[in-house]
Design goal:
With 871 residues, the chain is an alpha/beta fold. Among the domains are: 159 residues, Alpha-Beta Complex (Isoleucyl-tRNA Synthetase, domain 2), CATH 3.90.740; 131 residues, Orthogonal Bundle (Isoleucyl-tRNA Synthetase, Domain 1), CATH 1.10.730.10; 141 residues, no CATH class. Helix content is 44%, strand content 17%. Strands 7, 8, 9, 10, 11, 12 and 13 form a seven-stranded mixed sheet that branches. Helix 2 links the parallel strand 1 and strand 2. Helix 1 crosses helix 22 and helix 25 packs antiparallel against helix 27. The protein is globular. The two termini are 62 Å apart.
Amino acid sequence: MEIASKYNPAEVEDKWYKYWMENRLFHSEPDEREPYTIVIPPPNVTGVLHMGHMLNNTIQDVLVRRARMQGKNACWVPGTDHASIATEAKVVARLASQGIKKNDLSRDEFLRHAWDWTHEHGGIILEQLKKLGASCDWDRTSFTMDEIRSESVLRVFCDLFDKGLIYRGVRMVNWDPKALTALSDEEVIHKEVNGKLYYLRYRVEGEDDYAVVATTRPETIMGDTAMCIHPDDPKNARLKGKKVIVPIINRVIPVIEDEYVDIDFGTGCLKVTPAHDINDYMLGEKHRLPSIDIFNPDGTLNENGAPYTGMDRFEVRKKIEKDLQEAGLLEKTEPYTNKVGFSERTNEVIEPKLSMQWFLKMDQLAKPALEAVENDTIKFYPDKYKNTYRHWMENVKDWCISRQLWWGHRIPAYFLPKGGYVVAMTKEEAYEKAKKQVDYPITIDDLKQDEDVLDTWFSSWLWPISVFDGINHPDNKDINYYYPTDDLVTGPDIIFFWVARMIMAGYEYRKQPCFRNVYFTGIVRDKLGRKMSKQLGNSPDPIELMNKYGADGVRMGMLLSSAAGNDLLFDEALCEQGRNFNNKIWNAFRLVKGWQTAEIEQPESSKIAIEWFESKLSGTIAEVDDLFSKYRLSEALMMVYKLFWDEFSSWYLEIIKPAYQQPIDSQTYQSTLQFFDALLRLLHPFMPFITEELWQALEERQPGESIMTALQPRARSIDNRLLADFESTKEIIAGIRTVRLEKNIPNKEVLTLQVIGDYNHAYDSIILKMANLSAIDRVDEKSAGGIGFMVGTTEFSIPLAEKIDVEAELKKLEAELTYQEGFLQSVQKKLSNERFIQNAKPEIVENERKKLTDAQSKIELLKENIKALRK
């Protein structure tokens, strides 16, 4: 196989992905091997690839490719999420652009448009993942609203209802006035907002007096049904047992007493609006207050909000401030910063709203799920997220699972003509149940299915089970083989939405954990530390990045700086580093494959180099195995990167490289090809495309053969003494090169090296070749004009009397000696100061002592060099 002079990522990537797909190398079926399973966090069907997806899916691909190369039966299940709120919003917007309103369509007509959208956009992100190199089992692609997943969701709803864990009732919920649906607490993002605190005057009935209430939401006063004071508040004691008049609307409301009121906030008087605040709602329940809902679903005021009926809530806030001012009922306003809830999906300010919804009881489900993480049955990486998880699970609230949308899994509840309802998988099944429940004649058409759909997360919490059809067919061969899954790679921002709920579903429906390890990625930020977003315009297009740097380059660039749980400060220079590494590998391969071989004697230097690199490679493999076991992927990649760039390319290949236009001995060449093979296999999980291209070019391969299924290299014996000796050898070579650089002596000029003291000559052949020396001589003292350096406790010298200007060199060395002696005096002075020794941190004192010994060594060497030049 001919290797091009330059690496062309686009050509290589397209070729090998097609090859992998044609040979079905990503596909998995149950067999006798150990399974390794990952399920993809399903991206929204509306989505396109962004940097967060890139990071998350690169990590998953590294894990699954490595497992495959460990001989495991690796299965990575891809899929998408129907994303009720996001998708419905997209469809509504598209219809609006065509002049069609959602409300003008029947449910079935709207759903046809939604399915059209899904078929049009649903596969985009999965196709983009292929460009990244994602080795998913595409035959197993799932969608949360396909037939199997939909049946699973309805079956679980019916089951949990029958167990008494799902109930229906009026509760205070988070209402999104833009999406027109309830949200769970986890779908609300609280942000600090700069607003005002309004001080409103409520006149006391029958008296020339008023109470003042401080509120951030004056637009809700039309829903006030009481004023509340603390029973022990002396400043408001005069209001006990009285009634006050709500400003603008003149409704008379009672003054109630409750210890819930914060005496020190505002004036100590609290307006109570049970329909529009969760705490007011609880007060209202306790004191049996009426609830007056003043809002329409879209955030405008209804007839109870007169005189502002039809106006938007925030317009009312501005208008009511003026009206209160004119009526003399606004005492003052002051700037105030408070936390306000926003919809995670639409960024609309949430409106607390009393609403009839479906809820899932969480206490019982949470217990085994909490225990599993606490006792490390399921491990978190990094484990700091255990605290976050514990806090949420110990304070878990019932989950509002209904949404007022049309796109999604419709709730399988059917209402009866005279009240009540039945829950069943199908309308036919519901009819059979209903006939047994009522004492009056009904037809199947009398049953009306609930209009609401289930929260999107109610389908994705079943994902690790439902992708293997484990809900509908709990004993099928796939679920029995692939479950529990091994690793989940996700962001910590959905630890409650998804991770915790999947764990609950796993214990409820399989009595097992749904995965063994959770790897939390950080958030991808720009180099200024800002979260990447379309609004800021600071997020590069991943496809463009891959076109520019190649998929392997981008994968490597992201991985090198993405330790588990830590945010990634993305800089395009990282991708450039990745591309440069690709080029380094490519050029090293071309160098090796360009050598001619011959049956000649193996040089001693090559023999030593092979022994050394075998140990170095084994040591790196052992470290990489350890790092993978701790999910420290970034460090594992850096280890292999350094092994290839620093040790293999810069040292090994240079040592064994034959002289210009000379052949290499076949024994060394074969060892080098074996090393290259091992390095490519080590690199493959991180950089799949270039490694496949070069592995195929290493030798003739069979059709369908791939590096993907070649085994990861294993660590052999490690000769630590050899490794240490070789590091010393590298230091000697570096010392000689430094002298050449400082004295401006070309590399091609042959030098000699003198050794003063004990020395191991075993590595002479390498030093002679790499430093271009004619000899290494053992001497009692250095020659005149010798320039010396130390490696450990051994002194080395290069005789240079004929090659340098002695007088100029003496001047330079004497100036350096004067500087070092002055520096030594300053360090000695500091260390003789008792106050410094007593007060400074131990590590600072130790650092000064090191400076002292270093300076003394340098002075000694400088004096020796000066003495040698003066001979």
